[in-house]
């Protein structure tokens, strides 16, 4: 076989292991009994070490050298070689014992976090999280030495290939200059319109689930290749052609679960729309986490909090819960779904205040990876920064530094991709509307076909053929530009 064929076959086997890990991880987060924690941790650690062994196989270097000079390769195959080289360069920086130690530490920390979060008990989590952080610093240092990056940028690179904290600092500074004053302005505007009349609960979980499944179908989710479940923290995971999404329910507020479902469905549509021909190859994977997050926020924030969508959805909501009245009309629901207020929980934050939650986490994780503050000070540092950015202080750590699973699960460097994704979502949705005049009318009649078809052609189906900036420039006409997001916020919240 040619060197390229050797590479492709080798990484198809690695993909099979990744799929197995994905399903086991999904089960750990949704259905696994507590008594299986130790066994599952051992199984996941073994599979991750086996996967690491595959993607760091010494033969890959020789295959890459030969494939790199193969003039017969097409654009997709050349991009696949590029992506394999990126993976191999990063992963060969890590010894197998470090991968194994990190996997075990993460499994123990995740399970401890679930109880610590429920109990608002950071002290119980601290030793487990300290071990995860210690190992993440080692991983960042090892990768950084191989890539010529700081430890934090090396960790960021795992989620945002080519992303650098210096650029994020600049983008976030532009938002930080704009958002505090704008938040005050919007809250004042909304207060002047009188109180928002919210639909009254309780809302039975089964009715919420049925509504969520119905709206997933409207957006285009393929139930032959995915499912919806419940977890402590909503996520999208699973495997190729087996996309598992989760939400969590609140019987007093159905909007939280429904918009969580819309968010995760955006992720799932990206996964289900990746190019089937290269599905098990690196070039067939999603481009980056900021692009992935743009697809979830495009559906949740850009499309499903629009007047067009709520005009369509209001009758469906009334029917789902057997309710009627002023609070269930489209205009009232629009005010409810776009209400801006300062709150403690990131996943429940509105579109205007959400970036502050991310800037807080971004600054803290950079400081912790850089060993600029002890982990024991994280709760107090979190509370101080929340006062600075949002003007509120969490009453306990469950509503503060314990609310996210990302750090216990080893996701250091992940958080900035959320707000990068929000900016990307605004830019992509704007481009889709300009490209097809039927996007908004389609949403108003419950037809997401025009939007999804454009996304399939310009984002989903492109996989990792292009680097992030080139993908976005091809799709929207420019690289990431915070001004598009800021303009969107002004139109929706100050001018609408």
Core attributes:
496 residues, three-stranded mixed beta sheet, 3 strands, 65% helix, zinc, metalloprotease, metal-binding, protease
Model description:
- The protein has about 500 residues and is mainly alpha-helical.
- The protein has a domain at about 5-135.
- About 65% of the residues lie in helices and about 5% in strands.
- The chain is built from 20 helices and 3 strands.
- Strands 1-3-2 form a 3-stranded mixed β-sheet.
- A hairpin with a 2-residue loop joins strand 2 (about 235-240) and strand 3.
- Helix 3 runs antiparallel to helix 4 and helix 11 (about 290-305) packs across helix 16.
Q: Report the biggest beta sheet as strand number plus sense, adding barrel if it closes.
A: 3 strands, mixed
Q: Helices and strands: which structural class?
A: mainly alpha
Number of helices: 20
Strand order of the largest sheet: 1-3-2
GO biological process, one term: proteolysis
Cofactor: Zn(2+)
InterPro entries: Peptidase_M32_Taq
Family: Belongs to the peptidase M32 family.
Element layout with pairings:
Layout: H1 3-30, H2 37-55, H3 59-67, H4 75-91, H5 96-119, H6 122-147, H7 151-159, H8 165-192, H9 205-219, E1 226-230, E2 236-239, E3 242-247, H10 254-273, H11 289-303, H12 307-321, H13 330-337, H14 354-369, H15 378-390, H16 416-435, H17 439-444, H18 449-458, H19 468-476, H20 482-495
Parallel strand pairs: 1-3
Antiparallel strand pairs: 2-3
Compact description:
This protein has 496 residues and is mainly alpha-helical. 65% of the residues lie in helices and 3% in strands. It is an enzyme of class 3 (hydrolase).
């Amino acid at each position: 076989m040619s060197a390229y064929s050797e590479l492709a076959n080798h990484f198809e086997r690695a993909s099979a292991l990744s799929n197995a890990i994905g399903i086991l991880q999904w089960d750990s987060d949704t259905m696994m009994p507590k008594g299986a924690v130790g066994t599952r941790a051992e199984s996941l650690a073994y599979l991750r070490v086996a996967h690491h062994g595959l993607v760091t196989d010494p033969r890959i270097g020789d295959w890459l050298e030969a494939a790199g000079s193969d003039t017969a390769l097409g654009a997709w195959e050349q991009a696949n070689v590029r992506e394999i080289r990126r993976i191999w360069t990063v992963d060969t920086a890590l010894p197998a014992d470090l991968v194994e130690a990190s996997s075990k530490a993460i499994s123990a920390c995740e399970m401890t976090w679930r109880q610590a979060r429920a109990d608002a008990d950071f002290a119980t989590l601290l030793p487990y999280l300290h071990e995860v952080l210690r190992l993440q610093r080692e991983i960042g240092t090892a990768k950084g030495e191989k890539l010529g990056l700081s430890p934090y940028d090396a960790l960021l690179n795992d989620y945002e290939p080519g992303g650098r904290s210096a650029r994020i600092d600049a983008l976030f500074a532009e938002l930080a200059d704009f958002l505090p004053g704008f938040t005050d302005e919007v809250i004042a505007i909304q207060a002047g319109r009188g109180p928002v009349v919210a639909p009254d609960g309780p809302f039975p979980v089964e009715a919420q689930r049925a509504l969520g499944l119905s709206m997933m179908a409207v957006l285009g989710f393929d139930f032959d290749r995915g499912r919806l479940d419940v977890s402590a923290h909503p996520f999208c995971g699973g495997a190729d052609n087996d996309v598992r999404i989760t939400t969590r329910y609140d019987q007093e507020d159905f909007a939280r679960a429904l918009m969580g479902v819309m968010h995760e469905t955006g992720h799932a549509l990206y996964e289900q729309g990746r190019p089937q021909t290269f599905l098990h190859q690196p070039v067939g994977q999603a481009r980056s986490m900021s692009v992935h997050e743009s697809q979830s926020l495009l559906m949740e924030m850009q499309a499903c909090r629009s007047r067009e969508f709520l005009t369509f959805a209001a009758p469906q909501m009334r029917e789902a819960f057997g309710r009627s009245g002023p609070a269930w009309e489209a205009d009232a629901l629009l005010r409810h779904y776009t209400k801006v207020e300062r709150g403690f929980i990131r996943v429940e934050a509105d579109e205007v205040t959400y970036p502050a939650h991310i800037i807080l986490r971004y600054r803290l994780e950079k400081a912790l990876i850089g060993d600029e503050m002890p982990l024991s000070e994280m709760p107090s540092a979190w509370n101080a920064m929340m006062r600075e950015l949002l003007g509120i202080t969490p009453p306990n750590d469950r509503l503060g530094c314990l609310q996210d699973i990302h750090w216990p699960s080893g996701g250091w460097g992940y958080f900035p991709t959320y707000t990068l994704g929000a900016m990307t979502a605004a830019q992509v949705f704007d481009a889709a509307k300009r490209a097809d005049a039927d996007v908004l009318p389609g949403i108003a009649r419950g037809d997401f076909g025009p939007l999804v078809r454009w996304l399939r052609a310009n984002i989903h189906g492109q996989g990792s053929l292009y680097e992030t900036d080139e993908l976005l420039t091809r799709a929207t006409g420019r690289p990431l530009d915070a001004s598009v997001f800021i303009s969107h916020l002004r139109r929706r919240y100050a001018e609408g």
